[in-house]
Amino acid sequence: MRLLKDPFKKTRQNWKSDGLLDEADELSEDGNVSKALILYQKALKINPRNFEAWFNMAVTLEDDKKYDEALEAYDKALKLEPEEEEALFNKANVLHEMEKYPESLKAYNKLLEIDDENVPALVNSADVLLHLDKPKEALKNSEDALEIEPDDIDALTNKADALSDLGKHKEALKTINSVLKEDPDDVDSRISKAEILSEEGRKEEALKEYEKILKISPSNSDALSDMAELLFSQNKLKDALFAIEKNIKHDPSDYDAWLLKSKILAKMKEEKKACQALTVLVNLKPEYKTEVQKEKLFDSLRSLPMYPIMN
User: Fold this and answer.
1) Rounded to whole angstroms, how far apart are CA atoms 169 and 151?
2) What CATH number should be reported for the domain whose range is 231-311?
3) pTM of the predicted protein model
4) Which of 62, 210, 228, 252 is the most exposed place for a label (fewest CB within 10 A)?
5) Sequence spans of domains, the chain
């Protein structure tokens, strides 16, 4: 992500902090995160109102996936310059990445109040609205983005997803096929197409679409988990287990994958293995205990000594 550069040093008293900032930026761009962060903090001790230092430190933290700290730094930057567009956009993206969708939408909307033709903000806010189950609003933002940039692939994909959520599957497929005509290897669009086909009940076509995706991107976690869900719904348990285990191998911290693996194993009557998978799940995501308790598939497991404690 881009660091800000200010060629104009504003005051004599900031020379020292500006020198530290320049050095920190170089370290950040070279990937030396820990040393860069130390220098940003030193620069901010000298001048705590240095917007550039807060912003660039936030970018460095975001790139290092330290989202809580990045969010705090973006907030410090925005206190100094509340309408700085790039800081607002980056803050919204961090919240989006953290799956804090209402807060993310609020940040995107604030940016769109400043610039209602900001295409990346329109596109990303549409994705957030889809997560919030607001397809009508997502469709509007996608179409607003497409009026400005008619060939924006992400906007077209979001439009297709919104149309699908609204039950307009034929329009959704037409939109997504227009993307794939231009770029047959666009994985996100193919995932959207597979989901639309699945919702239409065209499950075998959806499975073929997932197979195409995995040829392009063999470890794509979204495709593997969606494919496993679809196979599970068709009672193709061995194939579903293979797909979800491949996903877990790629991302061992994917708690939704562990939940699905537990369900598959329970349905296969592999009770001990199902309990082991559940134990991993509740250790990764303790708040899933309630969902596990409600799942009827796990009723046969609850009396077993290896069933994880849910209290």
Assistant:
1) 21
2) 1.25.40
3) 0.75
4) 252
5) 231-311
